[in-house]
Design brief:
The chain is mainly β and 120 residues long. It is 0% helix and 52% strand. It has no helices and 11 strands. Strands 2, 4, 5, 6, 9, 10 and 11 form a 7-stranded mixed beta sheet that branches. A 4-stranded antiparallel beta sheet has the order 1-3-8-7, with no helix packed on it. A hairpin with a 4-residue loop joins strand 7 and strand 8.
Length: 120
């Protein structure tokens, strides 16, 4: 059973940077598609980027060039490097792991969430 534990997050001013980590236990992440989702207050959870088993990346136009996903299979960890943060990036961020990228939002494997707050 895969278990995901997130760390990082916090509060920053506009233009600042943060890094989120998502460390897996119980299974190797090598065979999983991994992704980051976020949920802003009063809104639905949406996917922002994902990285396949082979390292292929897809990302939302709203975060491209600013929120960068990466994985370190040796450390069994997924990362989200967040740069040039904007107030509209304020949300609860979740990592996810699934066997397939195309329906990652339906996976049962989620991190516990990390709050990111960006002030103007």
């Amino acid at each position: 059973q895969l278990h995901l534990v997130q760390s990082g997050g916090g509060s920053v001013q506009t233009g600042g940077s943060l890094r989120l980590s998502c460390t897996a236990s119980g299974s190797s992440i090598d065979s999983y598609c991994l992704g980051w989702f976020r949920q802003a207050p009063g809104k639905e959870r949406v996917g922002i980027n994902m990285i396949s088993r082979e390292g292929g990346i897809s990302d939302s136009e709203y975060v491209r060039g600013r929120l960068t996903i990466s994985r370190d299979n040796a450390k069994n960890t997924l990362y989200l490097q967040m740069d040039s943060l904007k107030p509209e990036d304020t949300a609860m961020y979740y990592c996810a792991a699934g066997r397939q990228c195309w329906n990652l939002e339906r996976t049962n494997y989620w991190g516990q969430g990390s709050q990111v707050t960006v002030s103007s």
